[in-house]
Amino acid sequence: MIEVVGVRFKSSGKIYYFDPIGLTIPAGTDVVVETARGLEYGKAVLGNRQVELKKVVQPLRKVIRLATVEDREKMLAAQEKEEQARALCLEKIVQRQLPMKLVGVEYSFDGSKVLFYFTAEGRVDFRELVKDLAAIFKTRIELRQIGVRDEAKMLGGLGSCGRELCCASFLSDFEPVSIRMAKEQNLSLNPSKISGICGRLMCCLKYESYGYECNKKCRCPKNQEKQKDPSEIELAEELLKEGYLTEADLADYPELEEIIVQVKEKDEEQDK
To answer: What digits encode the pLDDT tens for the residues 39-65?
Structure first.
């Protein structure tokens, strides 16, 4: 077991484990941590806890410090720069006539790198665009192509249910979703009915999939089958032996078939 804290860098992003280095960090605390991209500002969503070593991705990086007022101001200043960087990048994309759609911009906390997220139907040669951006921002530039599901997660929106998109509100990871899940749930296979705004199968098809799989394995009774409590069966058995149940009542208790036969045989012997 190893002590960690869970840190999230976006409201609905993935949770990463970090070494608290002896600090007591309650959930909801802003922290500055060490990452592969340098120092980053995040929020501890899981306080100090012990987890199995196999669940931790090595090397386990450290929490540098609890965030200060200066750290928060620095983070907010970086977010303001992102809007300006987005406008400049869009302008350069139009100038270069590149077949790509800019989705988001992200400044690293220490300002050492600017990350641009985009979507495109195929591969895009953006080497000249990187040179243009590097000349403007005087820092390291990275362009990262993402899929349509990640685009929906970043931009947000409302689903067909009228609620905020699951991926933008609480889902930390995308799980595989297949058309088989829709078939098992007896849903319409019309793409417009089972697809999200990203054009892919809705993530919520996964939510009830486990229940349907469990139903198959457990062989749960059909809806129309009446299930009886064991105590009810015991009572019916006793009433049957005492002769208090009618023929119509007996039809409701197939579990008592053997007892019914015994009682009928007993009645026949008494009649003789």
So the answer is: 889 999 888 888 888 888 888 888 999
Q: Are 139 and 105 spatial neighbours (Cβ–Cβ below 8 Å)?
A: no
d(CA 80, CA 116): 15
β 140-145/113-119 pair status: parallel
Amino acid at 84: Q
Alpha-carbon gap, residue 256 to 60, rounded angstroms = 63
pTM of the full structure:
0.69
